[in-house]
Design brief:
Layout (H helix, E strand, L loop, with lengths): L1 H35 L18 H4 L6 H6 L3 H4 L5 H31 L5 H13 L6 H11 L5 H7 L1 H17 L3 H9 L4 H12 L1 H16 L3 H6 L8 H6 L2 E2 L2 E2 L2 H21 L1 H10 L5
Antiparallel strand pairs: 1-2
Helix pairs in contact: 1-15, 5-8, 5-9, 5-12, 6-9, 9-12, 10-11, 12-15, 12-16
Amino acid sequence: MGRRRRRILDNITIVVGSALLLLWIFIPSYWVFKTSIAPPEEAWDPWPPRNPTLDNILSLFIPSLESYLRSMGIRAALPEPLIVPITNSFLVAIASSVIGTAIGALAGYNLARFNYRGRRAVLWLVLFAYVFPIFILMVPILMIFRYLGLYNTLHGLALVHLAYTLPFSTLMLRSYFMGVPKDIEESALIDGCTRLEALIRVVLPVSAPGIVTAFVFSFTLSWNDLLFALVLLSSSRLYTLPIATTFFLWGGEIVDPGGLSAVAVFAGIVPAVLYMFVQKYIVLGLVKGAVKA
């Protein structure tokens, strides 16, 4: 009887916990999506909009006169249409992810295949760089970028995002490469390939899930960054989407809830769609790329 009661209590706990978790996820998601398709007079109504509209979403790409007037001057502070920060975010995130994944693949292969004095110290240094609080480095980064002429540039922002993407890609791909049999590389070397050719022609193709996983996670880290963009960009034509989102807040108040919700929906959908298309590669990459000492 005691075992049956314990089993019932366990089932109740699982059901209640799952229900609370679903509500925790569903309620904010519902509210944001509902507000993004609601007209201004229904923005704060908790029920589904009676007169749904796509104006809030369309105004991200083709701002209308009504959207300028409804935003109560906020777009005057952000004169560029939101398609500009959206494009900037795409350019920065793609550039940072491609560079971080490419260099991370070389660094991860080095740490996975070569034995040399200090290799473990390098590994721990990469791990430390990944968990180190980046904001502590903002002042020296700002000074260096001003000196190099990279301040207020998108390519400079993409480079500084490597502080996020490169350590993660290196650790992820190192762990994945350690699971790739060395025999296939040795066969390529016997056939006359150099070490780099063996990496490009043999190792990287069979490591596609790990590479895709590193790229997607790097893209998400760069796409969501606000700190570096806020410090390193001063021109509105170069603002990224996270910065543009802050212009919907004025004095601590949301002056355009429909526009803000539309931006939030779009910003969340882009990584979600990316994950959806490469889901099987990410699952395989995470399973095989579990961090190994």
